[in-house]
Amino acid sequence: MGSQTGAAITERKTRLDGTVAEFACTLLALEPGRRAVLRYVIDREWKIGETGIVVRPGFVTIAHYWIDRPFNVYHWLDGPRTVAYYCNVAETTEIGEQLVAFTDLAIDVLLRPSGAIDVLDEDEIPPDLEPRHRLTIAKALEILVTDAKRLIAEIERETRALI
Fold first, then answer.
1. pLDDT at position 2, please?
2. Is the dihedral of CA 113, 108, 79, 52 positive or negative?
3. Does some domain include residue 2?
4. 91 phi/psi in degrees, rounded to 5
5. Which of 64, 114, 121, 132 lies at a 20 to 30 A Cα distance from 73?
6. For residue range 41-73, what is the model confidence (pLDDT) as tens digits?
7. Distance, CA of 83 to CA of 76 (rounded, Å)
């Protein structure tokens, strides 16, 4: 996939409430305006809802972004072992050489290596959410739930090729 480099790049996530979170990442692969793969080392413990999964400091995220998909995928690794694939339902993804930015639509999907699927944060959807956002969420959920095995195989293949 396009250029590969160890350059610094920023991930910017804008939430529905307008708050912004930025993360300093390392660029692994880039096709400007199309897709990117970034690396981020987890710096804090994070319990993933009621899933029983805990992401710990030192775990590595290999983050996959596309402008033509209504989600991005964080491939969480503990050394070489896959912990899970965390999918952010997203829109307005922008991919450039200095920045990957997206609007986070609150819903997340956790894909486990076993094939189990957890849909998370449905309670975070505001009741007055715009219909276009609801359509994006529905499209993302359809893809993530019905085509999870293919997506997992794709993410595994691409992650392993880059690390």
1. 53
2. negative
3. no
4. -145, 175
5. 132
6. 999 999 999 999 999 999 999 999 999 999 999
7. 5
Domain-located, residue 47: yes
Quick one: tokens of 45? 């413990």
| Residues contacting residue 102 through CB under 8 Å, at least 6 positions apart | 12, 13, 14, 65, 72, 88, 90, 91, 92, 93, 94
For residue 55, give the CATH number of its domain: 2.40.380.10
How many domains in the chain?
1
Residue type, 20: V
Distances (CA, A) of 82 to 4, 63, 146, 160: 22, 13, 21, 11
Q: Which of 39, 10, 35, 37 is nearest to 26 (CA)?
A: 39
Whether 17 maps to a domain, the answer reads: yes
